[in-house]
Every structure is written in C-alpha cells, then in structure tokens.
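User: Second chain of the day. Same drill as before.
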Amino acid sequence: MSVQMKIEKIVCGYSGSFLLKEVSFDIEKGLFTGIIGPNGSGKTTLFRGITGDIELKSGNIYFEGKNLTSFTGKQRARRFAIVTQKIEVANITVEEFVLMGRFPYKKPFQFLETEEDYRLAEKYMKMTGVYKYKDKLFSELSGGEQQLVSIAKALTQEPDILLLDEPTSHLDIAHQVKILNLLHKLNKTFKLTVIMIIHDLNLAGEYCDHIIMLDNGKIHTSGSAKEVLNYKNIEEVYKTPVVTRENPISKKPAIFLISERVLKGKM
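Assistant: Same format as last time:
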C-alpha cells in the first residue's frame, strides 16, 4: 500500500489547556484506521486538526504529497468527507440532506442540483439502506438512521478519505454493527480509506486494520489490533484492569473488564 496521508509532527489544540505534542503517523491508502484513547487523550483534537477545524501551531499534514495548506475549502471537501458525532437536525427531507454532499462540485451561480447529483444521491442512499426514507424529514429519523443518512451524504462527495468522529456513539448494538459493517464494506469493496475515532475497544479490534492509541496528547502505540489491544497497553493507558483473549471466530482481540468487587474477592 502507498502512503496517502502523512501527519508530520503536528502540534494543535487550545492554548493554556490541551495540546497534541508533535504527533506523527502515516495513513496508507485503503486502510481502515481506528483512533482510540481515554477521555482527554487528544482524539477529538487530532480529528479537528486533520479536518482543518483548528489551526496547526506547527507541523504539517500532506495528502498525496501535497501540503493541505495549499488546498482550498472545496478541494478539501472533494477529497475528504467528514461525519461528526453531533449531527445538526435539519428540517429538510433525507434526499435534500444527502444532496448537500454535492455542494463542493457546484459551479459559481449554480443553484439547482444536476441529474448527476440526484443519481449519486440515489446511489448512496440505496447503498446505505436509507433510500426508503428519502421523502421523510431528517429530523423524524432515529439516531442510527440519521447517522446512516450522514454517511450517505458524505459518500455523495465521492471522497478519497472518510473521517468519522465516534459514528457509533449512543447507538444500540444493532445500529453499531450495521454502521461498522457498512464502513467495512466500503473500505474493502471500494478501497475507501477510513479514519475513525471510536471509544469501544472491542469494536475497534474487530473492524480496524490499523489502530492508533493516544495518551495525554501523544501516540502511546500504533499497529495492528493484536499489537495494540493487549492488556499491558490498555491497563497502562486506561488505568483499569482487563483481560484480553482472542475471538474464537474472527481471531481478533476481545477485551473483558473486571469489576472491583471481583478483583477484591480475588485479593
């Protein structure tokens, strides 16, 4: 695989409070990368630095060899699609919401969507399983349905990289698996590079090819799920005892928590 994005010694964050500390890593084309770490470790700061929501204090981010500072907003939006944790609940139809993903391709003074815009919106609504809701108000959907529609909107941008900030947060297990199965399919079938912040270590281990574990604004460790998600790394970063085993079917690491009551009973 070739390096698609290079993060080079970036420092970003909020003066007087929290800063990422010269974080560096490469994202290979077609890889499914999960970013994990406890609250306050820098996951969201890193995400916002990559997406351009906050300015880098130092360091550089390169996409296919070009510094991202040379990209216009529309150029960025054609290469990167972003799905955030908090979705603004719009009082428009699902189809209208998904069509908003075509904005980076609009020409000056173009106010109406083209046939191609509608074709792509239909394609990705069907792919994400939300086409049946196309005439329904976005605000009337459940949280899981809204997340799927947001992914459909992101896909209509036809991006090279899909960035997601905790896409399964606050969802039940059925919607979590549905969304991650969809992302996994997009990644494997269409070679779409996926970068995802995720809290659930078991889901990260099951779906991600590559995992970056943050701790206190730095990369603690990175590598495959088996390399990162062992009890030593987890206990060191999350400050809680765990047991790690291999999933008997997928062969991916599975993490088991241990209650304080049980621990004290064994002491």
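Residues 3-227 form a domain with the Rossmann fold fold (CATH 3.40.50.300).

User: Great, on to the next one.
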